[in-house]
Amino acid sequence: MTPVTKGFDASGHLRLAVQKKGRLADDTFDLLKRCGLTLSQSKNRLYARVQELPIDILLVRDDDIPALVASGASDLGIVGGNVFEEERAGGRLQDRVPMVQKLGFSRCRLCIALPKEKNYSGPRDLDGMRIATSYPALTDKWLADNGVEGAESVVMNGAHEIAPRLGVADAVCDIVSTGGTLDANGLAVAETILNSEALLIGGKLSEEKAKIAEALKLRIEGVQRSRDAKYVMMNAPRSAIEKISAVLPSADNPTILELAGRPDMVAVHTVCREEVVWEVLEELKRLGASAILVLDIDKMLA
Question: Which stretches make up the Histidine biosynthesis HisG C-terminal domain (predicted)?
């Protein structure tokens, strides 16, 4: 990021709140870069300015983002689904954040975990337990929805994994990415109560800011479409086009081109909107395709 010299006072600029550091922040800045946006950062590192669009970036704690959007202090936010759903389950957002769009990155799970030595056969095994968590609203809601009786959330802002060993709680409910931290502390996942990913959230916008938000969303959607999409080219027997089209995952209608001097063969070009795995290539080869190329797509608009 290059430094920005002017203050955060541009009228009419859309405000976008993002996490200032951490995994979600890294993934968010990568998304903005892939959207073709260049950021100029303030000297105090509290905000940044987008050069290509009238957007100012607020660099804040992730758990502050839903409240900033709900209050109107920020127009949009990129936040983990776990944080957003906790605020929503706690009734703190009401209907002030009408826009919620999944972004497909920073995926994780909110899980209830128990010491490995405890047998677990279902939610009722949690009856009467104390569960250490920083997501009490989501935890309590899941417990109530699943008929668990007498269990209570013990709110902790960190070090949930050692709570059972300290005698503070009988179980934990925390974010899990790989499960390595739980395993190292003698815990095992019993239930997944939420699958989380990054969300683009937004409040009620003026007509001017809504146009800026649509321009940003259009770029984000282009990046999302190209993330797993592949451009596939091959030479193939004319008689096998129908079978080849059926094999390609989520493919658009292919473009068929004549091959000079080969009336029985054609060139097939198409976009596949899902990952093209080796098994697909092997099946294409079996159907007579040759010179198969699978290329990444940098940008794509519908």
Answer: 227-299
- Does domain 229-296 fall under CATH 3.30.70.120? My reply is yes
Q: Which long-range contacts (CB under 8 A, 24 or more apart) does 92-96 make?
A: 92/66, 92/67, 93/66, 94/70, 96/69, 96/70, 96/71, 96/72, 96/203, 96/204
pTM over 0.70: yes
| Residue 147 Rama label (left phi>0; alpha psi -120 to 50; beta) | left
Fold (topology level) of 108-196:
D-Maltodextrin-Binding Protein; domain 2 (3.40.190)
Does the fold of domain 229-296 match that of domain 108-196? no
pLDDT tens digits, one per residue of 240-266: 999 999 998 877 889 999 999 899 999
